[in-house]
Specification:
Distance between the termini: 36 Å
CATH architecture of the largest domain: 3-Layer(aba) Sandwich
Low-confidence stretches: none
Helix content: 25-40%
Number of domains: 2
Shape: globular
């Protein structure tokens, strides 16, 4: 008889056990995340699995699969992102670390998923690939400095800091390509993903080919505006001629920096959209901008045009499923992982 039994569980009935594992192995996870993952996702609620020690009845570990809708050449497919992979310290030399992901890989089609994906941390990448997961590109880490004071204060202070930061900031401003683009686009904050946004998304979806995540108003309101962990800002880029939406950029601001989570551009002139976005962000008084993006994404060259540099801190998404489902071009963000 096998020592460990893998069972799909009802997360609502098991919420206290899930909370206890979060406290022990994913500290800082808010309890509201569970209800959020169970309600509002257009792809469906989260699937949760426990590994039980059949001798003692203890929970030896757990894993989840979060549904996500993608479009592959105009056909909708349902993917599952593996997450919440936690093994009790008591059982880390035994079987649950292998049996939990193996159970998901062996059964994902019967659970209603076309493929699985995740962005593993380096320490478990080898383990995950042992279940048939394959690399699908490289997520590079791009960054652009806008102001220098925050970084210079680690090395100098007083008059040198004040004078040095002024000179460095002036240099950064002079070499920033966005300052030489005309302001032909309006920037404003978007408070909700409404009918106007949905019309924008439908137009963009029809223009795109390849593989990309579904970004309907229903999904975006759930993903970004109801998220219990993060507070997001949404910038709407509109034409000065007819006020129609040309682009959407979603980002999170933390102290002196922002991280871009989503970029949706309808206008073909990507440099024009990015230039106006960067001008708007300068008004936020942040020191730097970061994002992760597939190195094969055509937007990489646009970001580098505006002075973004590669931080050489790569991440590697992996997929398990038919290669036919994952064509190029792929529009995949690191932040798909952050659910």
């Amino acid at each position: 008889m096998a020592r460990f039994q893998i069972e799909q569980v009802d997360p609502l009935r098991e919420r206290e056990n899930i909370y206890n594992f979060w406290d022990a192995y994913l500290p800082g996870t808010r309890k509201g995340r569970l209800d959020w993952l169970l309600n509002g996702n257009p792809a469906g609620p989260i699937d949760w699995f426990f590994a039980y020690d059949m001798k003692s009845g203890e929970i030896a570990g757990m894993i989840s699969v979060i549904p996500r809708l993608f479009t592959n050449n105009f056909k909708q497919i349902r993917a599952g992102m593996m997450g919440d992979y936690m093994i009790s310290k008591k059982y880390r030399v035994f079987g649950p670390a292998f049996q939990l992901p193996n159970h998901i890989v062996s059964n994902f089609n019967s659970l209603g998923y076309d493929f699985l994906y995740t962005v593993p941390i380096p320490s478990i990448t080898k383990l995950i690939k042992g279940f048939g997961f394959k690399d699908k590109g490289t997520l590079i880490h791009l960054a652009k400095m806008l102001h220098s004071r925050y970084y210079l204060k680690n090395y100098v202070s007083g008059f040198v800091l004040k004078t040095g930061s002024i000179l460095v900031d002036l240099f950064l401003y002079i070499i920033s390509a966005e300052n030489y683009h005309k302001g032909s686009i309006n920037c404003s904050k978007l408070e909700t993903f409404d009918a106007e946004y949905q019309l924008f998304w439908e137009k963009l979806r029809l223009k795109r080919s390849g593989f990309f995540g579904e970004c309907s108003s229903e999904y975006m309101n759930w993903r970004y505006l109801k998220n219990p962990h993060y507070t997001f800002k949404i910038l709407k880029l509109t034409s000065k001629i007819d006020d129609k939406i040309l682009g959407i950029i979603i980002y999170m601001q933390s102290q002196n920096k922002i991280e871009i989570f989503e970029m949706l551009f309808l206008d073909e002139d990507k440099n024009n959209l990015l230039a106006n976005f960067l001008k708007c962000i300068r008004k936020e008084k942040v020191d730097s901008i970061f994002l992760r993006i597939l190195e094969t994404n055509p937007l990489v060259k646009n970001f580098k045009h505006f002075g973004f540099i590669n931080m050489k801190d790569n991440a590697y998404p992996v997929f398990n499923g038919s290669e036919d489902l994952l064509p190029e071009p792929m529009y995949f963000n690191f932040t798909e992982k952050m659910l």
